[in-house]
Amino acid sequence: PVHFISYSPLVFACLRHGLNISEVEYRASFEENVFRVLKPATSKSGRCFFMTRDEKFILKSLVRAEADFMLDMLCHYFEHVTKHPQTLLPRYCGLYVV
What we know:
Layout: E1 5-6, H1 9-18, H2 23-30, E2 35-37, E3 49-52, E4 58-60, H3 64-83, E5 96-97
């Protein structure tokens, strides 16, 4: 089995709740550890993208600096998407180390 370390799990759980994504549904999407690799050309950064088998979630590999940036802005992101649920910002559901 693949093991994950979750960053800011409570914040992301609240974000998922706000998106009407149940924890059962979210975990089920990752249970089989089967991901489809998306074309690398779709990424400006050259990072890899993956899609869950049920096609509900897209995953992106990050370098450490990107993950640190995301953690630094997470509080502001959370406040924004909570106040503006119709925002056009992407919907982040989690940040993990695999």
